[in-house]
Amino acid sequence: MVLSRATCRPSWPGTDTKLTRVDQDARDLHDGTGRWAGTAVGAAARSVRGAAVAYDRAQQVAGDEGLSRWARRKARGELKDAGARFDAAMQTWRAVGEPEAQLLEARRRQVAPEVARLEQAQQARETFLAEHPDLPGRMSELNGSIQAREQLENMRRFQLLREREQVRQFHRGHNLGPDMGYGMDL
Tens of pLDDT along 108-126? Predict the structure, then answer.
């Protein structure tokens, strides 16, 4: 949980972005873009999309009533070829892309309830803070005092570290070690 300094309201970073990322990844998967662009999965997705567009065009041409007999026969052959390319692309997609799509859908099903639960908790907090308008100011004061204490503690630690380092440097510079002693041996 992070306390936003501007509003003194608690928020969980990434709750809504988790779901957004999974949804964007799924769109990228089906488009063959994003992290899927240079992969076999991305190539399969682009192939299916291209084959579907080619099949739709071939269907439109084959359905044109103004074609001559020869042109209709050619259009039916192109439709058959486009259908075969689409079937082959779908077979590749089922082998390569479909498992990834299922994993992303499972991830979405896993993340969605977590996001809903956190959004509900956030809404409850918003309601609580609306009922207690003095609380954000008090929370801000507490944050300030905690930061001041942490800063003082960090300064104290740094000072102690610096003093220890000075003592160590002093002993090193005067060759005062356990074998030398601090005075004359009599």
Answer: 888 888 888 888 888 998 8
